[in-house]
Amino acid sequence: MSVNKVILIGNVGRDPEVRYLDGGVAVATLTLATTERAYTLQNGTQVPERTDWHNLVLWRGLAEVAEKYVHKGDKLYVEGKIRTRSYDDQAGVKRYVTEVFVDNMEMLTPKQATGGYAAASQPAAAQPVQQPVRQPQQAAPNAADDSADILPF
């Protein structure tokens, strides 16, 4: 048995480039940056921050979603498979490209921060929630007679 599964959380490096194949199938490519924080070892050695760049490939519906809603700087969660391909460049040198073919994508950037694919002007957390004020019901003079009229739900 073998497994080829990648999970990444990072920031989009550039707007997706989307192209449509002859059959109308959408293909999007974009880059994703993942960064490991800097830290200090117990002996005092400083380990600097490290950023890795990943080439993402999205097909069909995911490509169309990326075209509409994903922008440079957005934070994404992606799941997919690693694929490596090779080609010969113009000088005849063999080049290798490693890509993540995305199966699942979640947008982690709040909707308002991406330039407005939501209609609300404020984030949901910042909008005040107003609850209706309920007036306490007064007991009827003959509460036993009215008990059928008062429902607990």
Tell me what you see in this structure:
The relative contact order is 0.17. The longest helix is centred in the middle third of the chain and has 10 residues. The termini are far apart. The protein has about 150 residues and is mainly beta. The radius of gyration is 27 Å and the shape is globular. Helix content is about 10%, strand content about 40%. It contains 2 helices and 8 strands. The chain has a domain of about 100 residues: Nucleic acid-binding proteins (OB fold (Dihydrolipoamide Acetyltransferase, E2P), Beta Barrel). It has a 5-stranded mixed barrel with strand order 1-3-6-8-7. A two-stranded antiparallel sheet has the order 4-5.
What is the fourth-level CATH superfamily of the domain at 1-37 and 49-113?
Nucleic acid-binding proteins
CATH topology of the domain at 1-37 and 49-113: OB fold (Dihydrolipoamide Acetyltransferase, E2P)
CATH class descriptor name of the domain at 1-37 and 49-113? Mainly Beta
Helix content: under 10%
Q: From the helix content, strand content and strand pairing, which structural class follows?
A: mainly beta
Main β sheet profile: 5 strands, mixed, barrel
Radius of gyration: 27 Å
* Strand proportion: 35-45%
Mean pLDDT: 80
Give helix and strand order, one letter per element, not per position.
Answer: EEEEEEHEEH
Q: For the record, give the distance between the C-alpha atoms at the N and C termini, rounded to a whole number.
A: 55 Å
Q: Based on the structure given, which CATH architecture of the domain at 1-37 and 49-113 is correct?
A: Beta Barrel
What strand order characterises the main sheet?
A: 1-3-6-8-7
Number of strands: 8
